[in-house]
Design brief:
The chain is α+β, with helices and mostly antiparallel strands and about 200 residues long. The protein contains four helices and five strands. It has a single domain, classed as OmpA-like domain (60s Ribosomal Protein L30, Chain: A). Strands 1-2-5-3-4 form a five-stranded mixed beta sheet.
Length: about 200
């Protein structure tokens, strides 16, 4: 078959498609209006959820700021989440939660339990860059687990709503680059991330 036949066959296919498109059924006006109305309704519901989430995070941020007055913490609002940064909760090569750091976790638990039980809390564990990366990943997880256990067992948060993850010595998350030992105390920390869950 030469190129003329291919062109002719291609033209027939194109004409068939065009004819099919011309005879296709068009959407009726009432169906179109109904679809648009449904989309607007969904849009309004989503906007209401977003407004509720914004209000909830504003309240939560205010409550935590009042409770954390006097503690070494930093709150940062992200899209749909609130990050609570705390510094130097752990000694070098240690995953034991120190007594002096428990009061701020108590305050955090009280606010979440009493006013925001519908959130998910993720405890992120970090290390300084000393040692093997695999070991530091494990150590970061042990730190996150220690804080999670405290939030659940002592703070009374629902276990299914508190997660633990480790970032180990992730260079993008270090407070002080390449610092370890005494200088790297700020890197040995946990961060609490609060995610809003629509009911």
């Amino acid at each position: 078959m030469d190129t003329t036949h291919y062109r002719f066959a291609g033209s027939l296919v194109l004409v068939s498609l065009l004819l099919g498109a011309c005879t296709a059924q068009f959407i009726k006006r009432d169906e179109f209006d109904s679809t648009i109305s449904g989309l607007r309704s969904t849009d309004a519901e989503l906007q209401e959820q977003m407004d509720g989430m914004h209000t909830m995070f504003t309240e939560l941020t205010g409550q935590l700021n009042r409770r954390f007055d006097g503690y070494d913490t930093k709150l940062t609002s992200l899209q749909g989440r609130l990050r609570v940064e705390m510094t130097a909760h752990f000694g070098y090569d240690d995953a034991s939660l120190r007594d002096q750091d428990k009061p701020v976790l108590d305050e955090f638990s009280d606010v979440i339990r009493e006013h925001h039980a519908n959130v998910i809390v993720t405890v992120e564990g970090f290390t300084d860059p000393a040692g093997d990366p695999e070991y530091n990943q494990w150590l970061g997880m042990e730190r996150a687990k220690a804080v999670r256990k405290y939030l659940v067992d002592v703070g009374g948060l629902e276990a299914s709503k508190v997660r633990a993850v480790s970032y180990g010595e992730d260079s993008e998350r270090l407070i002080k680059a390449n610092a370890w030992g005494v200088d790297g105390a700020a890197n040995r920390r946990v961060a609490l991330v609060v995610d809003y869950v629509a009911i």
